[in-house]
């Protein structure tokens, strides 16, 4: 499968903790005005003037959240940043800085950690955020990565999960289910590889879904798009666990119900064909698959003309009074209650 072809192995012990931090971070650039002091002191110093600050952290643990047998370290670094930036954008904020903490065992040579940092840096560069600090320690078991992202937002622009009102439109960005199906394909190839290591997988028919699993992109563009369209969502959340559980979050925190239309859920053709191949129901995958990192929001009906026809935004339902509950309206027009099945639950089935 995807193997580290880099034969050079420099033991981490050759550098020591401070040598390693210096080696990995000495060339980092500062681009954000709000970064007063980045790496190198006891703490970073940031100045946001009159803005509100959003802060979010995610922890990624080897064997729980990722599997290095098919996840190249570069992609893992990139994804670790994306997962966090996605939470910042879900507040309708601009991401400005990240800190990165890693716990590594001696089984990783310096070259592997460099790969990981190539991913961190690529993501930070692409999304215009500064890496302003972190922590480095050893681990006796697997690799652990914790990223904290910081963002800024004008007080009037912050969007919470709690603002949805009955009759608001339920809107989603991009398409759903691809990351989960990419995961299914990679898992299958891993099993094949175990049996026959010479078998090179043909991932060509699955490029989009595999990329969505290995290299997700957080929707920075949507925060800008909404600003350009002059639409402020009434509530918003990022889709990390699957559409169903995120709708439930919005409903619970906003004290409303929702109707989601099965025939409106955006699916890529590759998701549909791969679901057929795996004998899985594509609606179930979109509802429970997770790791899509799209944004789910509610917007007021009067903003509909502003988003109508926009290829990035799909209306998939609407919010109701709380008493009506939370339902999927199937293609056959039956109402099925929405239930929260995180993608981890699904994985264990
Ligand atoms: P302290 O002992 O005060 O925790 P460290 O020696 O751990 O300081 O860190 C020195 C500097 O390097 C700090 O600015 C810290 O934020 C930064 N740093 C440490 N580890 C990392 C890392 N893995 N990635 C980025 N910056 C790091
Ligand atoms: Mg430290």
From TrEMBL:
Record: residues binding Mg(2+) 5: 241
Record-listed substrate binding positions: 65, 291, 343
Keyword NAD in annotation: no
Residues annotated to bind Mg(2+) 2: 58, 87
Keywords: ATP-binding, Kinase, Magnesium, Metal-binding, Nucleotide-binding, Thiamine biosynthesis, Transferase
Keyword ATP-binding set for record: yes
EC number: 2.7.4.16
Binding residue positions for Mg(2+) 1: 57-58, 135
Domain PurM-like N-terminal: 40-153
InterPro entries cross-referenced by the UniProt entry: PurM-like_C_sf, PurM-like_N, PurM-like_N_sf, ThiL-like
Gene3D superfamilies: PurM-like C-terminal domain, PurM-like, N-terminal domain
GO biological process: thiamine biosynthetic process; thiamine diphosphate biosynthetic process
Binding, Mg(2+) 3: 42, 87, 238
Residues that bind Mg(2+) 4: 42, 56, 87
Binding site for ATP: 117, 134-135, 161, 240
GO molecular function: ATP binding; magnesium ion binding; thiamine-phosphate kinase activity
Reaction(s) catalysed by this chain's protein: thiamine phosphate + ATP = thiamine diphosphate + ADP
Metabolic or biological pathway, per its Swiss-Prot or TrEMBL entry: Cofactor biosynthesis; thiamine diphosphate biosynthesis; thiamine diphosphate from thiamine phosphate: step 1/1
Family stated for the protein in its record: Belongs to the thiamine-monophosphate kinase family.
Note: Reaction mechanism of ThiL seems to utilize a direct, inline transfer of the gamma-phosphate of ATP to TMP rather than a phosphorylated enzyme intermediate.
PANTHER family linked to this entry: THIAMINE-MONOPHOSPHATE KINASE
Function: Catalyzes the ATP-dependent phosphorylation of thiamine-monophosphate (TMP) to form thiamine-pyrophosphate (TPP), the active form of vitamin B1.
NCBIfam families for the chain: thiL (TIGR01379)
UniProt protein name: Thiamine-monophosphate kinase
Origin species: Gelidibacter salicanalis
